[in-house]
Amino acid sequence: MTEYSRSEPQATLTVFDAITIMIGLVVGVGIFRTPSIVASNVPSEAVFILVWIAGGLITLIGALCYAELSAAHPNAGGEYHFLSRAYGKSAAMMFGWARCTVIQTGAIAGVAFMLGDYIAQVLPLGPYGPALYAALAVIVLTGVNVVGTIEGKNLQLVVTFIEIAAVAAIIVFGLFGSADRPAPATVSMPPETAAIGLAMIFVLLTYGGWNEAAYLTGELEDAPRNIARVLTAGTVILVVLYTLANVALLSTLGLDGLRGSNAVAADMMRRVAGPAGELVVTGAIVIAAISTLNATIFTGARVFYAMGRDLTVMRSVGVWSARGRNPANGQIAQGVIALALIALGAITRDGFKAMVDYTAPVFWGFLTMVGLAVFVLRWRQPHRVLPYRVPLYPLTPIVFCLTCLYMFYASVAYTGAAALVGLAVLAAGAPLLLFMRKDEADDSADTAPDTSAADTSPDPL
């Protein structure tokens, strides 16, 4: 354990490597599931496309804000580090608790449900089939990670390109396939009930993961100069891919067809390429979902490890396994929480949507705090030389923060009871601050050097 605690990330990633990893983090199974939910909450096809473009612009603005923070404070701790420096260790600890119990574990359960939805299309097991497949996937992949099996970098790149190939197949077949173009959809719900805010939650969820690029700054060559290039180029590529993919889905299935589908890519391929095409794209999506789920389980356990080192009451999950070269106890704890969330989702109408409801308010609340950190750190360190400055300051971070605040409001106002459960779980973590180790008590952010080791375990990849 001591050996790994002393390890520090090395700057070995090129800009191309980092962009590829960023795209791989974002292009997951969300694009194969969320379009149907977005379509159900917009009044027309034009609005459907516009919300995807708007989501891309918001993502780009957020990426520019993160670029300033990441360039000025390069650290593998990412958001944990930004929050610690801007607001103190207690705020960072609450973020860590949120990652452990809501954000990361909710994401694991949500991805598992998406995987279950697609497998259930091929091998149905009744109304609880998706939940059963989801639970089985979490158990198996958690077990694999506990024994120490780690997917290599080359395998991750291969799976990333499989994901991109699946999106490319949607674009090509959807835009140039032989299926008849459906008639323009009529509004099948009163326009006043079309919750654009809820639609944006799922659009931005699909773009989600771009902020994880902040965790690459500890390993990126010349991070202060290159992180802005990574975030900007990666976001532009994602916006183009997602917009074209949704135009293709819409051109094949139409708005009403999207609203009635739980597996949009499979339904589209069935229409344009028959059952064989459906099986091929479903197989690619299942592979992508397994990869996304495995990566989410793998990275999430690092948060448990970091929390275990900072909180005496969670000491048991802060143990680094010498045999498996991983935080095995943290992975087990993470798996147990994810299975509990899957059980919660199983009793709802849509387990995937329930997990989005559960995570969204907490996620957007902390993202707002990260956006405000741009202002806080500039105010606290007025003479600091910034390698990269967000364009159009202060307008750009103001737009980002206002968007995050609106998304926080929308994620409470337009979602179900699971959102309140997520907020309650976050609040339940406050007493844990009483168990912070004395040497981890809040420090003045000005006294903490930016080159300090990250508050997370070293990346074994």
From TrEMBL:
Stretches of the chain forming a coiled coil according to its record: none
Membrane topology (UniProt): Multi-pass membrane protein
Entry keyword Cell division: no
Biased composition range(s): Low complexity: 446-461
Query: What Pfam families does the annotation carry?
Result: AA_permease_2 (PF13520)
Which PANTHER family is this protein grouped with? AMINO ACID TRANSPORTER, SOBREMESA, ISOFORM B
Q: What is this protein called?
A: Amino acid transporter
